[in-house]
Amino acid sequence: MYHILYKIKRNNITQMKGMKLIAPLIALLIVFGSGVALGGEEGGGGGDDSYFNVGNFCQYGSDGIAGKYALSGLEGCTISVYSEKSHLLDIIYKSDHIELLFQIMDDALLKKLLEKEEWLKDYMSELSYKKMTFEKPEIEFTYGNCSVEIHDTSISFLKIRTTGRIVFSNLSCYNITGEGNIVGLSRDNFSGTIISSQPLDEKDGEITAYRDVMFRGVDMRPLSDGTEKFKKVEGTVEGAIKTGTLGGEITVVMKDGKYNVDSVSYYDNVTIKNGTLEPKRAEFVVSGDENTMGKTIKVNIGSGAISSDNLKVMFDGKEIPMASTLADVLDPNDDGLQPEYVKMNVTSASGGEFFLLISIPHFSEHTIVLESIARNPIFVGMAAVCAMAVVIAAAWGMFRKKEPTL
Fold first, then answer.
1. What CATH number is given for 250-374 in this structure?
2. Cβ-count burial of 156 within 10 angstroms (0-12 exposed, 13-18 middle, 19+ buried)?
3. How many CA atoms lie within 13 A of 307 on its CB side?
4. Is 112 helix (H, G, I), strand (E, B) or coil?
5. Could you tell me the pTM of the whole model?
6. Domain extent listing, the chain
7. How are strands ordered across the β-sheet holding 132-134?
């Protein structure tokens, strides 16, 4: 078979050689212009020691793709996607890059085409890649009857829809648990979940889904300490995805003095988009089907992106309370129409990172605002002076009472 190989490389420039395509196939490459490289150094104090990461990358002709990428947790895994009649593509996760292989046509058909159209030989020998910059935080494309969405931030995400089967292979090194339409994968400090609307088949390190599949994974390795506590929290979040109460999450990081954002939707067409982003104030718009049951969303804040000092959370212009427990906020339908939130600090080496879980009890379109209320140093100083004056006056009064009368 004749393939297009599309490689995403981490940490250095890779060589992409020998890829000669006929003119009608150029458009196929252009559809990948929404790709993303993830896990790059952050501005504002962030870097490799940050937990939440979102980046971008560039493709440079025969020089390949430059970038730095977060590990996905699926290293060594191949995902093969089929239509009802044929093998469409493969997604191959390796230790430092992801490869996408697309089935285009067989060698016999290509040879016959070249024999008939002599001009194509010269044209193909002159073909080279144009310089392209990929700025969006995901690879998202449609190929044949198949649609693919890949995110590779610290929260790895993959969603595939097709008319045939989807096969995850080379999973023998993972601990595979679960049954029905939900299967868990774990290894070392990595934990992930494969979910489908159809029952999943698991046999000899292979998992087969039909028509659709969603994967979400979390790698704990970037955490500096408190890993066991975070594993417990993340396990609770995974449980909310399995039960369908976590609708999606958005990650906000600061890189080179600019904000980078990545948003993922899990269920019921729930979408999260960012509005204004500032160090002391961030705005998000959450929307969904009005018939959708309540959902919880997760907001991940990278180092230096938004201050958590005296943070308050506003929902449609009104401040909302903090939930009593993590389980409470992950059950958005238990408190009537009252939204609430929980804030969790993330113990990465860079510090200053946290995430919020915010319950949305009913859907249409809502605005969520995070505000960091910094104390005015002048007022703080005045309060300190007043407090000291009170102490001095009280002490002087006690001293005067002890003086002997003449």
1. 2.60.40
2. buried
3. 11
4. helix
5. 0.75
6. 1-222, 250-374, 379-406
7. 64-66, 57-60, 132-134
